[in-house]
């Protein structure tokens, strides 16, 4: 027993030593900037006043200003709409596409590879592609509409369509993520279940709702959670397509934080906006995980 305890202690010591370099690098890359962000959010730091970076006389000043900032509140609402509709469309369309391509065929295998291309492109490249699509003078979309004698507004400069244009571009980029995860889940479902249901007289719709959907629901929740967390990073699309406009129609929270820091030099206030955004993302993520676990417990 004593020898086994010594072996276990040596194993734990080796694991700690092996993990230490990775943890140190992770702390330097992610931990220190996060700590600096929190510390900066407690100051009125402005680039034009370097001494303000160490002014902690009113540490909660920035946070008290946030509820009364209509532009910040509006950015949260815009971000909520972008995240809700973007994630919903990505999950639904990704699931439908996976169901459609869940078959054995050379053409289908080629199509699967083709549908994954948007996800592996750099975000800035995706933004440039959709910038070309949404530019009336050079867009094939507008050219096709002109051939059909259909008048289309400038989508990215229209108050009614600017946010929708970003949602479409974001969905095009990240729908393959859900598609890939759901397709992998579909391939793990035993064929015997569907065959037995067909023998018992079930139709395809009943098989989907009572066999397929329960199997893939955890994957849908996980992919939705990942995309919800990731949806706050639509900065390249907003920056290149609309610049937060027209007005503040597409000004999401991280873009507002960017403007505060680099256009208005309000580094401290921008940091507090970023901290609140991160806390909201964490809260929503924990809520989604909790609902998923509760559903599994009730099943």
From TrEMBL:
Annotated keywords: Cell membrane, Membrane, Transmembrane, Transmembrane helix, Transport
InterPro entries xref list: MetI-like, MetI-like_sf
Protein name: ABC transporter permease
Lipid biosynthesis keyword on record: no
Keyword ATP-binding included in the entry's annotation: no
Listed PROSITE patterns: ABC_TM1
Cellular compartment(s): Cell membrane
Name of a matching Pfam family: BPD_transp_1
Any single Gene Ontology cellular-component annotation: plasma membrane
Membrane protein topology class: Multi-pass membrane protein
One annotated GO biological process: transmembrane transport
Domain ABC transmembrane type-1: 76-288
Family matches, as SUPFAM superfamilies: MetI-like
Superkingdom of origin organism: Bacteria
Source species: Bradyrhizobium icense
Broad class of the protein's primary localization: membrane
Protein family according to the UniProt entry: Belongs to the binding-protein-dependent transport system permease family.
Transmembrane segments: 16-39, 82-101, 113-133, 161-186, 207-229, 267-291
